[in-house]
Amino acid sequence: MRTIYLGSAICRMNGRGGVVMPPEFRRTANCQKNISQLVVGLHRTSKCLVVCQESFLTKQHDNSFEYRNRLAPDQLIEHHDRLRRAYGFVDYFTMDHKGSVNIPPLMCQLAGLGESLFLIAAGETFEIWDLEQLMATGPADLKLLASHMTNDKSCKEAGNEKDEFAVPHARSLSGRAGNHIGPGLRIQ
Length: 188
What we know:
Layout: E1 8-12, E2 18-20, H1 23-31, E3 38-42, E4 49-52, H2 54-69, H3 76-88, E5 90-93, E6 100-102, H4 105-111, E7 116-122, E8 125-130, H5 131-137, H6 140-151, E9 180-182, E10 185-186
Antiparallel strand pairs: 1-7, 2-6, 3-4, 3-5, 4-8, 7-8, 9-10
């Protein structure tokens, strides 16, 4: 039973914010409690969204009290700004039994999400990036991973023109589906 997210994928979002989550992400979400409600919010520093269970945010909040007590008075304003971003700019979405979600419109707007999305696991959370924006201004390691995935013919969007939720089949950097690319990492 997997309780952390692993891997990455490229997905397509329809005009209403609808996305079908990759199979590996769905399996992880199904293993976690309260799957019906996932929290989506802004990343602390990057222009992307973070998806997690509400219990993860609660745990993170409890840890922030210890951190706050170690801060100098002039650092408290910045700390409060981070908390406001982490807990104020959030919304919920529900993943159905097929793995479909509808990302709330405000979240799409705040993260600048377009039609092509890059999803990357981060343990108990995963991030949703706009693929075009990532390739233009994102971190070098994510750009490298995404470029390998988009250059692989098997990663082109699957399905026909009417398939609004087509999820491409990602392959490993070595070109064989499901291979590990490093300790604990596998491209979905």
